[in-house]
């Protein structure tokens, strides 16, 4: 499976959206250089409030560009970086990847998938009603989170729009993604 990076984003301050950049640098074990969420321990405010010593399993947020088309059909206009993601990708079913999948991005960077982004009420502050579009239920009534996936940086490197993303599935039985 191969996809492509369509946008990269980071922000030095806490803000819901992240400005697009010409490139971002991923730092092994830390996250996106210059991003407020980079670090060994958790940086997301809700997680810090629970336990600031937790490992940061949310160093990099990736989202599938196809979600923006789905949201547009429902009347929402969302562009890359506006949901707080660091990497916008096209051509991969990110939500179907198992825990431990390695994403080889560009020439050097490798991100290990840790889980699903758990969308919060801030999404409705961005656009009223959007939360219901990125969190729903499947036909069996199970909760479905569509606001992207999270990962940790296994190998650092520079990432640009246009870089390829190669998927390396883990060995053994695959564990489905859950919120992190």
Question: Which keywords apply here?
Answer:
180 residues, mainly beta, seven-stranded mixed β-barrel, MOSC_domain
Explain the overall architecture.
With 180 residues, this protein is mostly beta strands. It has a single domain, classed as M1 Pyruvate Kinase, Domain 3, CATH 2.40.33. The chain contains 4 helices and 13 strands. Strands 1-6-5-11-8-7-13 form a 7-stranded mixed beta barrel. Strands 4-3-12 form a 3-stranded antiparallel beta sheet, with no helix packed on it. Helix 2 (66-73) links the parallel strand 5 (60-64) and strand 6. The chain is globular.
Short description:
Residues 18-168 form the MOSC domain. The protein has a single domain (2-168), classed as M1 Pyruvate Kinase, Domain 3.
Strand order of the largest sheet: 1-6-5-11-8-7-13
Q: Which term fits the overall shape?
A: globular
Estimated radius of gyration: 15 Å
Task: Write the H/E string, N to C.
Answer: EEEEHEHEEEHHEEEEE
Q: Helix segment count?
A: 4
Top CATH class: Mainly Beta
Overall average residue pLDDT? 95
Assigned CATH superfamily = PK beta-barrel domain-like
How many separate domains make up the residues? 1
At CATH level 2, the architecture is: Beta Barrel
Provide the helix percentage.
10-25%
Q: Pairing-aware structural class of the strands and helices?
A: mainly beta
End-to-end span in angstroms? 24 Å
Fraction of residues in β-strands = 25-35%
What is the total tally of β strands? 13
């Amino acid at each position: 499976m191969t996809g492509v990076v369509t946008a990269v984003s980071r922000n030095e301050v806490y803000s819901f959206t992240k400005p697009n950049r010409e490139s971002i640098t991923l730092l092994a074990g830390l996250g996106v250089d210059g991003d407020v969420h980079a670090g060994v321990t958790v940086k997301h405010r809700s997680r810090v409030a629970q336990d600031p010593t937790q490992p940061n399993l949310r160093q990099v947020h990736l989202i599938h560009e196809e979600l923006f088309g789905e949201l547009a059909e429902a009347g929402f206009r969302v562009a890359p970086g506006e949901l707080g993601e660091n990497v916008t990708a096209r051509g991969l079913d990110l939500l179907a990847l198992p825990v431990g999948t390695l994403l080889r991005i560009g020439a050097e960077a490798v991100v290990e998938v840790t889980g699903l982004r758990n969308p919060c009420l801030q999404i409705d502050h961005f656009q009223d009603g959007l939360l219901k579009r990125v969190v729903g239920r499947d036909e069996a009534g199970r909760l479905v989170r569509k606001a992207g996936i999270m990962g940790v940086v296994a190998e650092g490197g520079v990432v640009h729009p246009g870089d390829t993303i190669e998927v390396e599935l883990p060995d053994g039985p695959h564990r489905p993604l859950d919120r992190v």
